[in-house]
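Consider this today:
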Amino acid sequence: MAGRVKGRKDTTGSELRLEGLDVAPGVIETIITLAAEGVDGVACVDSQGLAGLMQKAGRPGHVEVSLADDDKFAVVVHITVKYGRPLREIAADVQSSVADALLSQTGHAASTVDVYIDSITFPE
């Protein structure tokens, strides 16, 4: 996990305990991926191109999640966007969509949702 923050637990490879419910990290990553990919202007949650190749070699995923001691999620999501919509708007919408999805699906808020735009696609 890049940049672990003091007081946060890395969720990679271990189940999360959310108010007496054990949840696999893949479930949380799926919630995040679906929420982000539902945003207008997002092509996919993934990294493509040279940055994507380097990322995949260095770490396993395009979504990183940690759970703070106060039971709030810290999320990092890497996306590819479609050309034509302002990047700031797309990133802000992804932040909002992911935070809302986590709260509604798990009952736990996100303290941060960091969005990295790794690539852009153009219409053919």
